[in-house]
Amino acid sequence: MRWLLVLLLLGLPPLARAASKACPSGTFTPTALTTTGPSPDSVVLHGNPSLLAQTIRTAGTATVALEVSCNGTNWAAVTSGSVSVDGTTTTAAVSVLQPTCTYRANVTACSSCSVTVLYSCGGP
Fold first, then answer.
1. pLDDT class for 12, splitting at 50, 70, 90?
2. Is there a domain that residue 11 lies in?
3. Residue 81 to residues 13, 14, 24, 53, 104: CA-CA distances in angstroms?
4. What CA–CA distance (Å, rounded) separates 56 from 54?
5. Residue 9: pLDDT band by 50, 70, 90 thresholds?
6. What is the pLDDT confidence band of residue 21, given thresholds at 50, 70 and 90?
7. Bridge partners, residue 83, by sequence
8. In a domain? residue 69
9. CATH code: domain of residue 47
10. Residue 95 buriedness (CB in 10 A; 0-12 / 13-18 / 19+)
């Protein structure tokens, strides 16, 4: 009986979220981020051994933090998950080993910025 319950729960779709994406790769947004705030999209990780997020700057300066949420409501900054990009450092990346839950990018500082945040998941 317990196995039937487990199988049923595993077959249920994840909680409804705004534009959650499955790995292995893509962008957190269809267009560049130009103001402070979180990306409208998030990545739900299911059994991927790693996650890499790369910020690419095309204008201005920005600081982007990778954030995690296990309930889709409360977001926390990933330790050592913040990168800054400017005219000298035009791209930066952060990686997470053994990720769980849901991730998004959050532009925490922006001065005339235009940034795109890509993601890629490692797999077996």
1. very low
2. no
3. 28, 25, 19, 9, 11
4. 6
5. very low
6. low
7. 64
8. yes
9. 2.60.120.1110
10. middle
Quote the pLDDT of residue 101. 92
At residue 2, the pLDDT reads 41
Task: Answer for the pair 103, 28: CB distance below 8 angstroms, yes or no.
Answer: no
Instruction: Let me know if residue 80 belongs to a domain.
Output: yes
For 44, the domain range is: 17-122
Distance CA 108, CA 82 (A): 9
Q: Per the structure block, which two tokens stand in for 102? A: 């849901």
Q: What average pLDDT score do residues 96-121 get?
A: 95
Task: Give the CB-side neighbour count of residue 38, counting CA atoms within 13 A.
Answer: 18
- What pLDDT, in 10s, does the model give residues 40-50? 899 988 778 89
For residue 86, which of 48, 51, 122, 60 has the smallest C-alpha distance?
Answer: 60
| Within-domain flag for 2 | no
Domain count, the chain: 1
Q: Is the pLDDT of residue 4 over 70?
A: no
- CB 78 within 8 Å of CB 69: no
Question: Distance of CA 96 to CAs 14, 83, 109, Å?
Answer: 22, 14, 22
